[in-house]
Amino acid sequence: MIARKILILALLVVLVGLQSRLWLGEGSFAHVNTLQAKVSRKVAENGVKVQRNKILRAEIIELKRGLESIEEKARSEFGLIKEGETFFLLIEDDQG
Hints:
- The chain is mainly α.
- It is 75% helix and 0% strand.
- The chain contains 2 helices and no strands.
- The longest helix has 50 residues, at 29-78.
- It is rod-shaped.
């Protein structure tokens, strides 16, 4: 009879220990919910950052193309020569 009471008491202690782990501390329901909320916030933040990066990439491409078109216009209209390039001026002979 005493052994039975000790066994029941030991089982209750184990049960309380497992329940406390389930409800309190690391790995508990509250802890998991907190982590899930943090993950959700980070996913949302990352989505915003991905969109911002796409916009920035598009702006960079536009600026690069813009610079190329500006450079092309400067070469054709104003005779722009880059450093290290050699310029040849060909003149047609109209007296032919």
